[in-house]
Amino acid sequence: MTDTVVSPGTEAAPATTAPAYDPRLTNEDLAPLKNQTWGTYNIFAFWMSDVHSVGGYVTAGSLFALGLHSWQVLVALVVGITIVYGLCNLVAKPSQITGVPYPVICRSAFGVLGANIPAIIRGLIAVAWYGIQTFLASAALDVVLIKLFPGLAPYAVVEDYGFVGLSALGWGSFLLLWVLQAAVFWRGMESIRKFIDFCGPAVYVVMFVLCGYLIWKAGWSAIDLNLGAVTLSGWEAVPVMLGAIALVVSYFSGPMLNFGDFSRYGRSFAAVKRGNLLGLPLNFLVFSLLVVITAGLTLPVYGELITDPVATVARIDNTFAIVLGALTFSIATIGINIVANFISPAFDFSNVDPQRISWRAGGMIAAVGSVLITPWNLYNNPEVIHYTLETLCAFIGPLFGVLIADYYLVRKQRVIVDDLFTMAKTGTYWYRKGYNPAAVLATAIGATVAVFPVLTSGDITGMYTAAQYSWFIGCALGLVSYYLLATRGPLRLPAPETR
């Protein structure tokens, strides 16, 4: 077998499947891409779709209400998003160079069969968040529908018109967005690329118009970058700033891990890095400033602080503006949901049984699962939300750490692509019956230690603070544990081959 060389092309082309590739590990969706066509703008638009959402709006705005000075919040934002930028470049390279998605590149670390472990973990997490994001978008749509059609208000009451915890109106909005997302996904990756190319800029236009409208109503003198009272200064502000930095990294932990599924389409690694630079540090900072100005102006204009952009739009006394704004934010949420929580589980579930589960079938499994978990019930309890976020990060961190340690520290950036698709016992990534015990053990160590503070945050002193850093704890332990296990002791791997 020889190393597969992936050459960037100018036109979309199907994946390359070598005759020796085992069908139990291969289909057209998982095989190395023949041509990689995404340029800097496509990667930039990908991050705009991730950032420009209702969740991103609320997250960015909330940092300005931590009792910090505006400059301290901005420093935390810049540091946090710069960390995300660097980590995304790290996870992007192996998939961009080889042209394969995350579950396939994971075969290098976990083994050709062991890669199903991180794939299933990531897939289940994405299914949960796919459902939650769809529910959030449908709840926003409910607000606007009631604003436009007051007669629908009774159907939004769960006690009167409800089923398994969701109102009749909620079911209608949820299923409508569910179908729209599935339709965009079903059309394929090229249609998704065009969709996200549109979503991010569209939200920017609406955000600037909304901000301009509020400035016109309140005046320039009403702009205030501090959404809350400044109560912290000096060294007492440092822990809060560190927590804010951790929050930014944690918020992007899912898209960071998933990024290989998209960087594989990049024309070159340089184009991917340029897109990351534009889409993360620069774009996120501008968007954060836009968010805080807009949210801050709701106080003088409406008499209360509103951190939900859809609720802000619903206050405007213009039906066309309400509809346009609501549709734009709904489209944006569809964009981030497809990018962050639909495409990745599609690859993950397809990786489990490539011949029976295509990429599209994997995506539909995720879509159906997102309804069965009834995400509105998960999101009704603030404590469940708190645990869900930190538990998610506790498991994502080790997966990230193991992948980075394997590619950069153990493999020295060398991957034999053809061996990712063979079940031969002589294959580089066969390890022990298709599993690499070092990667599995390192993941278990990192996740166990990282989730412990989350589960005990209400019982043991100091665990509440530690839980905020669950991603960092899991990532660091996963990386260090894997490196030590893979380079020494009974689970030590042979020196990387060059073929």
TrEMBL record:
It is a multi-pass membrane protein. Residues 1-23 are annotated as: Disordered. The chain crosses the membrane at residues 44-66, 73-92, 163-186, 198-216, 236-257, 277-299, 319-340, 361-379, 385-410, 435-455, 467-485. Signal peptide: none annotated. Belongs to the purine-cytosine permease (2.A.39) family. GO terms for cellular component: plasma membrane. Keywords: Membrane, Transmembrane, Transmembrane helix. It is found in: Membrane. Its main location: membrane. The lineage of its organism: Bacteria, Bacillati, Actinomycetota, Actinomycetes, Mycobacteriales. This is Allantoin transport protein. Pfam families: Transp_cyt_pur (PF02133). It comes from Nocardia otitidiscaviarum. It comes from the Bacteria. GO terms for molecular function: nucleobase transmembrane transporter activity.
